[in-house]
């Protein structure tokens, strides 16, 4: 089974490959500047749609991006469901994200759970998630 970090890196690589030729960013506050940038890309406002944070994609590529992100979510969810006791993929998920959200300094799981899309109630009601979080926290505290 793949670890969370391995899956995250694989997904990032797939996204980067997709985005390299299909996503572009325009950061400007004026309509004239925006139109100028579109011309540089050989586009007009009718051809594109926003994906947020200054990012744009051609309308014809929007469905492909949607399918990619849905597949990534599904792969992650399947890996979580396959980890019946939380000691594999789930633990690796919490371990990486706890470190990424500086749990070792704050001892606060809230940012990690928010980033992963969980509430504490969801964690407590799922034995595998609860065990995975507990194991990750114990591993971090032991390393301190």
Automatic annotation (TrEMBL):
Coiled-coil blocks: 58-85
Top-level lineage group: Bacteria
Pfam family, one: DUF7659
InterPro entries with a match to the protein in the record: DUF7659 (IPR056076)
UniProt key word Coiled coil: yes
Keywords: Coiled coil
Listed name of the protein: Uncharacterized protein
Species per Swiss-Prot/TrEMBL record: Megamonas funiformis YIT 11815
Highest classification ranks of the organism: Bacteria, Bacillati, Bacillota, Negativicutes, Selenomonadales
């Amino acid at each position: 089974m793949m670890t969370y970090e391995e899956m995250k890196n694989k997904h990032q690589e797939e996204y980067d490959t997709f985005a390299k030729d299909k996503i572009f960013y325009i950061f400007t506050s004026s309509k004239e500047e925006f139109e100028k940038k579109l011309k540089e890309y050989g586009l007009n406002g009718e051809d594109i749609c926003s994906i947020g944070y200054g990012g744009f994609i051609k309308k014809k590529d929007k469905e492909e991006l949607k399918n990619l992100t849905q597949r990534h979510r599904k792969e992650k969810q399947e890996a979580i469901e396959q980890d019946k006791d939380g000691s594999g993929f789930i633990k690796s998920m919490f371990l990486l994200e706890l470190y990424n959200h500086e749990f070792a300094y704050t001892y606060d799981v809230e940012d990690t759970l928010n980033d992963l899309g969980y509430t504490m109630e969801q964690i407590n009601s799922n034995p595998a998630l609860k065990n995975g979080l507990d194991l990750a926290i114990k591993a971090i505290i032991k390393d301190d």
